[in-house]
Amino acid sequence: MKFTLSWLKDHLETEASLSEICERLTMIGLEVESVDDRAVFAPFRIARVLSATQHPDADRLRLLSVDAGPEVNDGKPLQIVCGAPNAREGLVGVLALPGTYVPGIDTTLSVGKIRGVESFGMMCSERELELSEEHDGIINLPADAPVGTRYADYAGLIDPVIEINLTPNHPEATGVYGIARDLAASGLGTLKTPEVPRIEGEGEVGVALEVRSATCLGFALRRVSGVTNGASPEWLQKRLKAIGLRPINALVDVTNYITFDRGRPLHVFDAKKVAGGLTVGDAAGGETILALDQRDYVMPAGTCVIADDRGVESIAGVMGGEHSGCDETTTEVLIESALWEPLDIARTGRALGIITDARYRFERGVDPAFMEPGLDLATQMVLDLCGGTASRRVVAGVQPHEPKQVVLPLGEFERLTGLSVGPQEQERILAVLGFAPRREGEALVCTVPSWRPDVDGKADLVEEVMRLHGVDEIKPAPLASHASVNGRILTTIQARDRAARRALAARGMVECVSYSFVSETEAKAFGGGDAALKLANPISADLSDMRPSLLPGLLAAAGRNAARGYGDTALFEVAGVYHSDTPDGQKRVAGGIRRGTAGADGPGRFWSGNAPAVSVFDAKADAFAVLEAAGFPADKLTIEAPASDWYHPGRSGRIKLGPKVVIAEFGEFHPKVLKTLGVSGPLCGFEVFLDKVPEPKKRPTRTKPVLALSPFQPVRRDFAFVVDATVEAGRIVRAAEGADKALVKEVRVFDVFAGAALGEAKKSVAIEVTLAPAERTLTEEELEAVSARIVAGVAKATGATLRS
User: Fold this and answer.
1) Which of 157, 410, 487, 531 could potentially form a cystine with 152 if both were Cys, beta carbons 3.0 to 4.6 Å apart?
2) How many whole angstroms separate alpha carbon 28 and alpha carbon 465?
């Protein structure tokens, strides 16, 4: 939102400086993005051409003798070389002296020679001063323009432009008047804008009006006959140019001015170009319109449009049509002031890809009570600038605004904010903001004004008083200290999040933050697509569903990196996924993917050989690293294959706690899923469901036990077992570990073999068992006894036989 300082002071009586106004705007929540103080125009002076002769060495250049006033060159004329076709004796124009920065050509002038003749400045065109695109000649001012004075003072260019950043909950600040109201409520001046006088008009509009769409919450129309449409006055053009708008003609400029001045978008139709009556209705789908931006748009079904007997003339609340637009030949104009359902306007703008000042305001909420006064204000400006006579208004489809009442206990402000603001000051601020507070005992009963659709309860009123009283008034205070060591601060899930992030970062992975939304196709590919998880108002068609998994976003990010030449990537994310629309349906997950050769040892080529492509084992190691970091040792877990359908059925697995609880999945991805997502290459990934990891048992103390190392040499024994091909190696490992928990320190699988010699559907799994005696060296008899217990334990658990 842009506006000039003089524009603001049309509504605000204040003696505050520019810096004070900008500081106060930021403090009350209207953050100042930039300030253009227009100082670039200060050096330019008004000068008169005393003589203009032909350049001796150039046909298109002339030598000018220029009077720039008594303060320049001791009043002596300056010699300037100029190529403008309108340079002549007696012309009064704008002079840039050496050392002046000229914005239109991005150059700082110096004394120079042009075709051998020195030039001590430059006579400027409007484009060189960035006032317009006019560059056919130098600026030609009236003969009585004061020579020697600053051009900026004469033309009123020293008018700072302020740009603020608006949050969606401040629709009232989309107009300069609303900004002035907030500043007045903060104590930086008083409002001085009178109410808009009502214009009754004479005669009929002459155009039938019918409202058929629920999107339209009110429609007001008036005809002004006998207008003379031309260029708008200079003051109006300057303001529009200052905020980046191009003046078009008086009728259009009036609507643009009121859009920014009062936050009230309007539209004007050339009445003679409207065929029959106007109908506000919903498009059937397929209708086309040539809009004011010279582009053709096809209307989706249900889009609210304004149509005449020939077809669509305007996209409601977004943009008008070119066919019925006003130009210099317009003599009969229809002025429209309407009100639209904000969500419908937002959907229309997104569907058509149109961003306009009208849409920006309507989708945030326009003051419903200013619909008819806005029509009257536009009518009066048209009458003043273009002449003519106004008809009576026609109003249709109005849904009456019912103001809300909010009760604010006087003590609530200090309770919620810690600030002490007296009842009188609270009442003053709310009164200036338009809430019409009245005292009832120890509370203020406030009527929410029509221009504040964002205010619903007493907390909103407290926020308004706080921001306008000044959040800078909140004094910093130290946190209360405790007499003893503080207890636990982070929750279990917070601690797990942090531990998971650190573990994965330590394994060479890079954290990624992706959208919580995915497309319907991606959601269905990863077990989602539930209708309850579809967004009612998605920001784009590709982000229509809440994500059922972290993997689609990570795979998409890996694909984008690969397309830019970074094929070996390892990404992770710790965030929420959504399996239903209930609170229990939101789960906390740590997920990650690896692509190319981005294994835990790092990607790339080495002298000893190329790094291998990532595989299911990389994903498994990542998943176990997260579980270990979360405080759950891997020796209590089982693994089964395969994992969910989006993983490769032969190269994936599930990590389970007990027979039913799945706490993680890992593996390489199914080729069909990768094709659906449009990514390729060696890819593996995992997800650890942090919510399902049980909390570790609480211990009475965090003191670590004394480290006890055995002085006796460990003994290693190898066993090879023949089992069914379906038996997991993990079952064998756990059975061997349980054979003698005091002696068995480690069990490791070092070989798996399958062949015809073992029999059909059989395999051999070889394990190495490390025995660590604590009290004395084991005898051969004791070693044989332990070995027998290991063989028996594995046989009982898996049906294995010792391979001979």
Assistant:
1) 157
2) 10
